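Quick start: read one record
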Amino acid sequence: MRELLGERLLSTVRDVNVVTEFRLRVGQETLIKTLKGDYYCAFRPTEKDIGEILKKAMRFSPYAYENELSAGYVPYKNGIRIGIAGKGKLNANKKILFSNVRSLCVRIPHEIVGCSDKLGDYFSDFVNTVVISPPYCGKTTLIRDMARVLSDRYDTLYIDERYELCGETLSLSVGKKADVIQGVEKKYLYENVIRAMAPEIVVCDELFCDEDFFAVKRFFHAGIKCLASFHAPSIDRLPPIGKEIFNKYIVLSDKPFIGTIAAMGYVRA
């Protein structure tokens, strides 16, 4: 982290170990989100600071990260993901080309091995399960630990599109029967990989659009079970196709603390 963000910023941070996110905006105080709450620090990044952080994240080889940049992020070590915003345009292939990045969202995963123990035997006899919550409530952390447990027992395929589940170099914990595909969207994987690897369970973070749900539905029809997450405040927001696919749900909240289980049960179509 010090190598990426530099001493000028990190010297202002109270407790690096509990930081979950840095929000850097040109000319503005840096917002630091932590497990204990949010605060601003005095560091005001310049365009040069933003550019230097991006260069380090991309190992000074931006062309190697064209696909990720066009999707609005850059992966870094140990599951860290850097979201970007600024001036951009679409090229002929409908990819976003950023010419002036002015904001960074540096998200830091917190691996909590054993956090899924609080579910008891809820997922011991595994069926299709979706973890639901608004942002910053611990979905990815919980799914990662559930997948770690499951992949000690089942052939489990992680679809880690943005390197958040396993880390760019698989630095986060996975089970002994785990296989990992990174940097590829779910919708492209059924024909090319799913059949060849024959997983019993597929794990994917952040279902977003209809294409994501249809991809998972194809896994389901092939007899493959799925563990996934979805951004929403409650089970009521799960779309109809999601209610066709998933059997169980877990809803997380950040009250009174991140990762609190607000509800869990069986999905009703």
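Residues 161 and 185 are 6 Å apart (CA to CA).
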